[in-house]
Structure formats: structure tokens, C-alpha cells
Sequence to fold (328 residues):
Amino acid sequence: MKAFVLGSYGSSDHLDLTAVDTPVPAADEVLVRVRATSVNPYDWHHMRGEPRIARMMPGTLGLRAPKLRILGCDMAGQVEAVGKDVTEFRPGDDVFALLEQGGFAEYVSVPERLLARKPGNLSYEQAAAVPMAATTALLGLRDVARIEPGQKVLVNGASGGVGTFAVQIARALGASADAVCSLPNADLARSIGADDVIDYASQDFTRSGRRYDVLLDIAGSRPVFACRRVLAPRGTLVLIGGPAGRWLQPAGHMFSALAMAPLVSQRIAMADTVSCTARKQILMTLTRLIEDGKVIPVISRKYSFDDIREAVRYQEQGHAAGKVVVTI
Ligand SMILES: NC(=O)c1ccc[n+]([C@@H]2O[C@H](COP(=O)([O-])OP(=O)(O)OC[C@H]3O[C@@H](n4cnc5c(N)ncnc54)[C@H](OP(=O)(O)O)[C@@H]3O)[C@@H](O)[C@H]2O)c1
Fold:
């Protein structure tokens, strides 16, 4: 099969289109013909080996060489073959999953416990937009913030991959959502359900004078002490991400925010999708929301498999309006 293989840390030029062996599924695995993937910051953090401090953290990046050789944590495709212990899937089934790696390839072998049926009303490209970004949004809002109907949510970074799902999921869970994004994306934010839109270039959202039950902080553009100003006295700040840096960020932003948690009255907590063990259940919940028409993936751009390096370069700029997907 063909796969983009990462030989060493660096730019997307380090992704080499290579012929490699097609994986053979273990007893509890499903071999999937990948039809589409999407690009996430997760992929290029692993590609660049940044932030470098993460190379020192066991289980995150490799110390000297990439831990992940075939990137791509989002995947939608068709079951090709199943291991002998697999009971839920058969060849021909349409599926999607949130993987650790392997989506930038024609085939991937996936443990049955991670695989879910593709939403029936989505194309492969739309389905591939969902796993990492929408799982993070649902995890942050439902499981970390525990939002309730009638609450007010502010999404900082509302027009990107995670943000476009977060605004829709907040609404689907009965909350109202305001959005922080750039002016060109204001109409997009309104079209997916944001009541009010704050342009981060001309307004500091922490000085709006409003108070929210939940601030879902995807952009990580303001320090915690400033974010507290827009939180209700018993509100929750959910840390999702922050500006990327070479050595420390966004890890530094997250850890310094968490260090303040015991000192403040409001709740500060992090959503960590990579270590989430309920990914399949979350994908199944998302499928219900999608099939009910409450959540629709927003696609910023589509690329062909051969142009995957270009897709990664575009996503790395950090201003995609929605998701960057790749047809395979
Ligand atoms: N904790 C986790 O498990 C987890 C999981 C997934 C992602 N993440 C993190 O979440 C972050 C976003 O991921 P993503 O996939 O949504 O990325 P993305 O698609 O690139 O979206 C980034 C968004 O940030 C917005 N933005 C840039 N500067 C901003 C500012 N100063 N104020 C407000 N918004 C700003 C951009 O909006 P404009 O285009 O309008 O400028 C864009 O919509 C990344 O740091 C990623 O690593 C964390």
C-alpha cells in the first residue's frame, strides 16, 4: 500500500510517499481501506517534534526520532477484513475512528474497541473531519464542564476544527454559545449557532463585561487571570489548546493555568482527548447528534492524497475555517 511515512522530525517535506506492507489485522483488529483523513494540530506536533519539552515526556513524542511514523489520527473508510475475534464489523461496513496514527495511508488496522459506524448521512470526507475535533469539543463541554441546558458558553477559537463543533454541540446540549474568532469568520460562527461573535483583533473578550458559565478555551490566547473575568463565580474554564511554540507552548500555557486552579474560586480543568478511553462511545454519541441534524462538520478545504503535505502546511497556519480533509 501507499503511505506518507515520517522519517525524521521536520516540516511536511519530511512526509515521504512510500510503498509499505499493508497491515495484517490481529485477532481483535479490523483492516480498513482508508477513504479520507483530516489534519489536526496533533499530527504536526508529532511531525515537528514540538514542543520540544514533550520529547522528554514519556508516552508523548519520541526523544530523538518521531514516535509516530504514519501520521493521521482521523480516519473514515470501509472495512476490508476482520480479525478472528471481531464480532461487530464485516467487510464492506462504513466506519470511522480516532486513532493514535495511521490515517495518512491507504489501509490501517484498527482495534475493534476504537471503531464506530460512520454516520449514515455523511460522506467519507465529512466523517473524517469528526473524530479528533468533535471528540475534543464533546469531551470538553459535556464531560469536563458538565454543561447544563440554559447555561451560557463562550468558545474562544470558535471558527477552527474544534471550535466549529463546540458551538454546535453546546447548542445541541441546550446551552447558548458566543464565539470568539476573526472578523472574516464571524458569519460562519453565526451560521453554526453562535448568538454573539467577538472579533479578537478589535476586542478583548475578557473585557466584554459579560459572564459565562463555561469558557471553552481552544485558542489559549489570554492568560488565566484575564479569562476569569468572564467566568461566573462558579463557572468553569476548560483548557483545550494554545498558541504553538518551538520549546514549550502550548504545554506551558496549559500547565501554568492548571497550577492556578487551587488558588481560584472558579473551576479550571483540561480536556485531554489523547488519553480519553471512551472514544468509541463518544463517536457513537456524536453520530446520533449528526444523524439528528444537530451537528454538521464544517469543511474548510479538501485535498487529494498526493497533496497531503500541502494540506498539513495549510492547517499549520492556524486559520482554517473548520476542518482540512484529505481524500485517499
Ligand atoms: N486538549 C486536547 O485534547 C486537544 C485536542 C484537539 C486539539 N487541541 C488543541 O486545540 C487547538 C485548536 O485545535 P483546532 O483543531 O481547532 O485548530 P484549528 O482548526 O487550526 O483552529 C484554530 C482556531 O484558532 C483561532 N484563533 C487563532 N488565533 C486566535 C486568537 N488570538 N483568538 C481566538 N481565536 C484564535 C483561529 O481562528 P481565525 O481563523 O478566525 O483566526 C482558528 O479558528 C490547538 O492548540 C490544538 O493543539 C487540543
User: Anything to note?
Assistant: The pocket of NAP is lined by residues 40-41, 132-133, 136, 156-157, 159-163, 180-182, 185, 200, 218-219, 221, 240-242, 250, 271-274, 318-320 (CB under 6 Å). The mean pLDDT is 96. The two ends are 12 Å apart (CA to CA).
